[in-house]
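Action item from last week, closing it out:
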Amino acid sequence: MIAIPLHVMPAGGRWEVTREGEFDIVADFADRGEALEWIRNQPELADTKLVIHAEDFSIESVQ
C-alpha cells in the first residue's frame, strides 16, 4: 500500500489536515501542534508522510 501524504496547512486562522490530491478536509484544529498530535494518535496514519506548510504556505518540512 502506498501512503498518501497528509498536508497540514493554515487556513483562516485554523490548521487543516488534508490528503494530497483531495479537497476534503480530514480534520481541522486551532493550532498546528493540535493537528500533529491528532495525527500521531491515529494508528492508521502511523506510516503516512507529512507535508507541513508554514504560515506563508511554503513547505516547511517533510517527514
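Closing note: The beta strands are 6-11, 14-19, 25-29, 50-53, 59-62.
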